[in-house]
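User: Just a sanity check before I run the rest of the batch. Below are the structure tokens for the first item. I only need the designed sequence back.
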């Protein structure tokens, strides 16, 4: 195969072949029209106000902040600063994952490659616009127009609402998925056979003909044609064999128009086009998967506060903090083991014993835990104070936080004199800074847990006291995202009554679990 023919087959890997004329014109445009203060002008919608994003030129290619670009289009993002990865959540449940200093990007389940990598600059990921836009247009239900001379990026004004299709071969059938942003009623879409062609007709559809024709062929689908009229888009798929049954519907989650072709016999491997991709793509996927597995949240450390000779806070009716938090910790661990297959649970204590503060984070580090959750209950001389709150490690802000810190850190006095000496000379500020690599993740985990607790406990008049930061010794030295949850006040008569019950303890455990689950999904989506 000639080299040019080979290169033209590479777009399945996301490698775009750029003509020499295109490179020359871009360089000339850069030299003649642009200056170091250039900005990309973004029009998120045809009639919306413009947004300007500063350009950083590299090798005569304009780079812009991926976060700023996502925010211009009002897309939600989640940023893994430690791994320098960004996930952008797109309409219709699609998402993009970008990594700094890496030419590969993931769009949904596809790994694609740009000719130049995304770059890390000023605590942000910058992307090469000329190479990102074609991938977006081909694999996402979005249609962008990029003008390299005027440096303008805008949503296409021709109101294209069908952006391409994909063909998947199943054991006894074929599934065609047509990407669209248009909602079609049942009488506005049809699938009919004419000769050996399947024609999918979409009333009010306007398609990107180039992308539709570039759909990778598979199975009995041997050719694709597109006919666009003023009111109707007709996409033709030439079949080497007609099916016994057909079905067409629109997926409510992805907005894709789905056509299912059913055959009686199993489709043989020899009739399936190379839909699984090249060996190079498989190798890339394996490498990325291996690297990703190293960072998955596969171990959770649950720390039940106090224990043994240290009862913790003592509240109404001699209710002891150490008993409540141990019960909640065990319930949380049981939920994780049941609902998170493959996730290992480690306890600092699973019975009524005393564990030194420094030993708790030591256990977390030794077990290579990916998350540290310390569970406590609060107290206050004012019996009316109630509610739950979640802390991350940091300097305390306010007198109320200081009171909580003093109470929880007083555990040190239960340790033997030799052990207490280990805390001397440790600078809590420096210790807090050492945890800063995980600060963003700790903040996200804390917010997720606090929100989930509120949803679980609001029916029982639970009061959210928010997410706070304070220098708790129990979190010092933890080399992973860490939080401390104060589940309620044992000194408040109403909450003390609730905290005694297994039902309320279960609700608390479920709230913490749901928050952990949400954090895990967000965290792992950018690995």
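Assistant: Here's the designed sequence for the first item:
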């Amino acid at each position: 195969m000639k080299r040019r023919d080979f290169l033209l087959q590479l777009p399945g890997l996301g490698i775009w072949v750029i003509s020499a004329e295109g490179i020359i014109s871009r360089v000339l445009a850069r030299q003649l029209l642009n200056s170091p203060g250039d900005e990309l002008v973004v029009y998120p919608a045809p009639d919306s106000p413009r947004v300007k994003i500063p350009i950083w030129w590299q090798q005569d290619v304009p780079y812009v902040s991926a976060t700023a670009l996502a925010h211009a289009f009002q897309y939600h993002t989640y940023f893994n600063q430690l791994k320098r990865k960004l996930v952008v959540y797109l309409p219709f449940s699609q998402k993009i994952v970008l990594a700094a200093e890496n030419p590969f990007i993931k769009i949904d389940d596809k790994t694609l490659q740009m000719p130049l990598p995304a770059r890390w600059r000023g605590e942000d990921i910058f992307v090469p616009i000329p190479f990102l836009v074609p991938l977006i247009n081909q694999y996402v239900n979005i249609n962008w127009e990029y003008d390299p001379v005027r440096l303008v990026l805008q949503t296409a004004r021709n109101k294209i609402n069908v952006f391409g299709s994909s063909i998947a071969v199943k054991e006894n059938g074929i599934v065609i998925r047509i990407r669209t942003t248009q909602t079609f009623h049942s009488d506005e879409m049809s699938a009919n056979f004419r000769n050996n062609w399947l024609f999918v007709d979409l009333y009010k559809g306007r398609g990107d003909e180039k992308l539709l024709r570039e759909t990778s062929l598979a199975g009995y689908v041997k050719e694709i044609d597109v006919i666009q009229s003023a009111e109707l888009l007709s996409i033709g798929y030439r079949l080497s064999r007609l099916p016994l049954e057909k079905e067409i519907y629109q997926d409510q989650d992805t907005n894709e128009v789905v056509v299912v072709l059913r055959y009686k016999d199993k489709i043989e491997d020899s009739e399936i086009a190379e839909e699984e991709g090249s060996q190079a793509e498989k190798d890339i996927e394996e490498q990325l998967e291996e690297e990703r597995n190293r960072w998955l949240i596969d171990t959770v450390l649950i720390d039940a506060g106090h224990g043994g000779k240290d009862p913790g806070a003592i509240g109404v009716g001699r209710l002891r903090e150490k008993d409540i938090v141990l019960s909640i910790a065990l319930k949380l661990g049981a939920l994780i083991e049941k609902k998170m297959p493959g996730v290992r649970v480690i306890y600092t204590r699973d019975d009524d014993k005393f564990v030194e503060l420094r030993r708790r984070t030591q256990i977390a580090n030794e077990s290579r835990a990916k998350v540290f959750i310390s569970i406590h209950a609060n107290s206050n001389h004012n019996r009316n104070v109630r509610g739950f709150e979640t802390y991350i490690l940091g300097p305390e802000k306010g007198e109320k936080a200081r009171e909580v810190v003093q109470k929880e850190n007083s555990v040190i006095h239960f340790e033997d004199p030799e052990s207490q000496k280990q805390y001397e000379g440790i600078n809590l500020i420096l210790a807090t800074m050492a945890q800063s690599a995980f600060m963003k993740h700790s903040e996200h985990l804390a917010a997720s847990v606090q929100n989930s607790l509120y949803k679980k406990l609001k029916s029982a008049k639970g009061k959210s006291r928010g997410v706070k930061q304070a220098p708790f010794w129990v979190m010092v030295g933890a080399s992973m995202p860490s939080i401390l949850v104060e589940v309620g006040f044992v000194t408040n008569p109403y909450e003390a009554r609730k905290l005694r019950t297994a039902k309320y303890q279960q609700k608390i455990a479920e709230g913490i679990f749901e928050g952990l689950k949400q954090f895990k999904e967000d965290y792992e989506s950018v690995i």
